[in-house]
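New to this. Please check this record:
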Amino acid sequence: MSTAFKVTSSEVRCFVRARAAAALVLLGFSLPGCATIVHGRHQDVAVASSPPGARVLVGDSDRGTTPTRLSLERKKVVIVLRFEKEGFRPAEVSLKRTTSGWIALDALAGASEFANQGLSSTGQQAGVAAGVAAVSFGIDFLTGGAYQLDPPRVHVTLEPLGPLGRPARRSRPRP
């Protein structure tokens, strides 16, 4: 004795939507933001000073002496490098956080054939593409992979202090 099941069109649509949603969730967890993968959450910034041997501070943290290379988090909004050396006036340089071009890969990931595999309609493909791109963009902005720090190389010239702790006056040659 066989039993026939009748499936309605609304049940088929529900199944297809559930399958698309499951694919989106799985893809979102398996495909982190492209900029984070390619670009990373940290950026190396080369720092140097004239004269060399200045301490470099980021916030209250002593990060070494010049010349050196610092690994800095891209997601920090404000990064100020402070250079200190005995006998010289301290100097500060602010790094600017800008959006990296690597995030363009996030849009491509959503439109890829892998993201749309098994989806039959253009509407479903567009929905999955938008979802994958949104997840990738979100990951990149949350981790900092969407940003870059400028300038990537910093060089400061420290000004010598005079005997009273003031900037030294430079003597001018007589005519």
User: Anything to note?
Assistant: The chain is about 35% helix and 30% strand. Residues 56 and 83 are 5 Å apart (CA to CA). The chain has a mean pLDDT of 75. The beta strands are 42-50, 55-58, 61-65, 68-73, 79-84, 88-89, 91-99, 147-150, 153-157, 159-160.
